[in-house]
Amino acid sequence: MPMLPHLQRLFSYDTWANKEVLVSLQRIERPPARSIQLLGHIVSAERLWLERIEVRPQAMPVWPSLTLAQCEREMGTLSGRFRVYLSAIGEEDLTKKIEYTNSKGESFLNEVQDILMHVVMHSVYHRGQIASDVRSMGFEPAYTDFIHGVRQRFIE
Predict the structure, then answer these.
(1) Dihedral sign, CA of 102, 38, 131, 72?
(2) Residue 54 and which of 13, 117, 134, 141 are 20 to 30 A apart at CA?
(3) Is the separation of the CB atoms in 24 and 142 below 8 Å?
(4) What pLDDT is attached to residue 103?
(5) pLDDT classification of 156: cutoffs 50, 70, 90
(6) Is the pLDDT of residue 115 over 80?
(7) How far apart are CA 12 and CA 84, in angstroms?
């Protein structure tokens, strides 16, 4: 079973879901600070992993202080960069091993496909935290379930 089309679809979902969260936070007059911080972390972590795959230096801290407007700009750039990257590689590139050092200074070696899956799963995890945070403040969080995106044809 080819993995690349599956990953492309997951990144389509990730882009849609991140935008849904952003829009839901923009609709709140004073969105929870923790939710903004978590969205900034999602953006910076996605960027960091792409930089690791592309063997580029880290451009942003893992926990940056971003505004919603900055998150929106970064998300637009990142979705385009991931789309270009995923359309330029082949199935065989997914098993390429990437060597990197994490924020604790530990060195690791992982396959591209595992890193890409991690990017999507990491973002899902933190979007869940944002949903919980927003709900605890009395607001309705974005509905970002994968199956909802599929049913509504937001994800192809």
Answers:
(1) negative
(2) 13
(3) yes
(4) 86
(5) confident
(6) yes
(7) 12
Are 41 and 62 within 8 A, CB to CB? yes
List the one residue out of 59, 43, 49, 52 whose CA is nearest residue 126: 43
Indicate the DSSP class of residue 55: T
| Distance between CA atoms of residues 19 and 127, nearest Å | 11
Kindly list the domain boundaries of the chain, sorted by start residue: 4-149
- The per-residue pLDDT for range 34-83, each reduced to its tens digit, is 999 999 999 999 999 999 999 999 999 999 999 999 999 999 999 999 99
Four-way CATH pick for 4-149: 1.20.120.450, 3.40.50.10420, 3.30.559.10, 1.10.3370.10: 1.20.120.450
